[in-house]
């Protein structure tokens, strides 16, 4: 039987290897540790958590909580390790990072079907062996170059400079209004949050004094790119710089007053349903709680839910729409799969989930079986679809699990956000249980 090769023993690679071995497929797992390490990895364990020890919400009415439950039901190694090494953290699932990675390393090393090779891979293999590349956001330079050659020049990004994305259903439409600048284009493409002079001054003062996120490794290099300057850095150039840049109010009169505001924050639609909006020009390096506090001062966003916070960091990821299929295989070379953060999913759990999806499918191919598609009603399937299709904006951005990308419910659910989340979860877990009953996962 054909083996599956997995490159990178991080969260995605270990999950992919585990899923393939569970199906009786032999796995060759390549990991450059302990001989070499990325700037963020500090130990010799596999599946190292490079920063926080939290895997975020554990409630299924929350998108990442639902993703975890789907993975548990698909016998995920990462979830097994997380549940076994859990530490108290309220409704979040936090782990003892040392025990978590140790547990996974021991499970992988003691699996008779998995052989570990401790070496750096420098090229995308072209020997026809089914391969899952899961080398993460800090993939080594040589392999990054080879991936770039394989995908073409626009195929790989090296930095992530993203503005926050909010849930369109949580915007206050008594303050925000639809309009495109100078009436060009569809008004519904943009939501505008107008500010008075007093509101602008208060927002400005909060923005320039807010706490920025810690820098990791070579993240500092991001600042050399003028085109993606953090909004707080631009603001620090002068009190009015933003009013002549991303917050300029000209051509955007408020239809309720007919007048232009002192400043305007524009939100651009991310998806056809209008369930997600990004804050135009607000790429930022502020710490996540500070983004909630400061951007929550924008009129209309007082109670907005942030589906994704803005980030600016080194992040090697594929411009996946059109290049990767929804099972994470390369469209032009289907025997090559990618998994993890490098596919444009964002976060520990999301990375592991993509490894699960890619690993299952690489194994099925090795066994001569058809590909397995997770329905888009599941968070696992929705993430695969997002990666392969991208958002509406044409500006593909890495994405956390969120209900803005899952198949719409197609009906109104009373009881607010939590009740909606529970309905998404009920539908998704029903689909997952069906797949399990059919012996597919
Ligand atoms: C600094 C930093 C902090 C982050 N903090 C968080 C956080 O707090 N919470 C969160 O949810 N997400 C965080 N992320 C995002 C992301 O979820 C993690 O990076 C996650 O570990 C990604 O999983 P992965 O399996 O794709 O990659 P990784 O877990 O990074 O695994 C990749 C593996 O591949 C190996 N490797 C790399 N290149 C090669 C090569 N050429 N040959 C062989 N092996 C190779 C590496 O040694 C590593 O073991 C952070 C990312 C970074 C960079």
Secondary-structure element order, as H and E? Answer: EHEEHHEEHEEHEEEEHHEEHEEEEHHH
Number of domains: 2
Low-confidence stretches: 220-226
- Largest pleated sheet: 6 strands, mixed
How many distinct helices? 11
Provide mean pLDDT, rounded: 92
CATH topology of the largest domain: FAD/NAD(P)-binding domain
Number of strands: 17
In the CATH scheme, the class of the largest domain would be Alpha Beta
- Please give the radius of gyration in angstroms: 22 Å
CATH-level-2 architecture of the largest domain: 3-Layer(bba) Sandwich
Q: Distance between termini?
A: 20 Å
Oligomer: single chain
Structural class: alpha+beta
Helix content class: 25-40%
What would you give as the CATH superfamily of the largest domain?
Answer: FAD/NAD(P)-binding domain
């Amino acid at each position: 039987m054909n083996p599956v090769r997995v490159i990178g023993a991080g969260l995605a690679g270990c999950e992919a290897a585990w899923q393939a071995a569970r199906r009786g497929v032999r796995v060759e797992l390549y990991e450059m540790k302990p001989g070499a390490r990325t700037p963020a990895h500090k130990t010799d364990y596999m599946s190292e958590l490079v920063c926080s020890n939290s895997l975020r919400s554990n409630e299924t009415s929350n998108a990442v909580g639902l993703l975890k439950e789907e993975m548990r039901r698909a016998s995920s190694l990462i979830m097994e390790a997380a549940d076994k090494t859990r530490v108290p953290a309220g409704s979040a699932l936090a782990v003892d990072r040392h025990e978590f990675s140790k547990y996974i390393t021991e499970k992988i090393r003691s699996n008779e079907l998995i052989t570990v090779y401790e070496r750096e891979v420098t090229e995308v293999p072209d020997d026809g062996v089914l391969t899952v590349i899961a080398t993460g956001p800090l993939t080594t330079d040589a392999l990054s170059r080879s991936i770039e050659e394989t995908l073409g020049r626009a195929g790989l990004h090296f930095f992530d400079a993203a503005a926050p994305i909010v849930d369109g259903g949580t915007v206050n439409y008594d303050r925000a209004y639809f309009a495109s600048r100078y009436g060009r284009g569809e008004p519904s493409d943009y939501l505008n949050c107008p500010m008075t002079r007093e509101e602008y001054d208060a927002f400005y003062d909060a923005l320039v004094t807010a706490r920025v996120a810690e820098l990791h490794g070579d993240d500092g290099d991001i600042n050399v790119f003028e085109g993606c300057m953090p909004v707080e850095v631009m603001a620090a150039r002068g009190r009015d710089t933003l009013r002549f840049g991303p917050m300029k109010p000209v051509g955007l009169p408020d239809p309720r007053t007919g007048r232009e505001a002192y400043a305007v924050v524009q939100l651009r639609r991310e998806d056809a349903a209008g369930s997600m909006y990004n804050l135009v020009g607000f790429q930022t390096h502020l710490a996540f709680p500070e983004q909630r506090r400061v951007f929550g001062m924008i009129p209309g966003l007082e109670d907005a839910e942030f589906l994704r916070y803005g980030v600016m960091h080194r992040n090697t990821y594929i411009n996946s729409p059109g290049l990767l299929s929804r099972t994470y295989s390369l469209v032009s070379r289907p025997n090559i799969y990618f998994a993890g953060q490098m596919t444009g999913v964002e976060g520990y759990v999301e990375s592991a989930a993509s490894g699960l999806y890619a690993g299952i499918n690489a194994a099925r191919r090795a066994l001569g079986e058809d590909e397995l598609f997770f329905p888009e009603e599941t968070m696992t399937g929705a993430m695969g679809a997002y990666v392969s299709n991208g958002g509406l904006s044409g500006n593909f951005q890495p994405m956390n699990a969120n209900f803005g990308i899952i198949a719409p419910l197609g009906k109104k659910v009373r009881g607010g956000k939590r009740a909606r989340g529970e309905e998404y979860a009920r539908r998704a877990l029903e689909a997952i249980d069906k797949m399990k009953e059919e012996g597919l996962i």
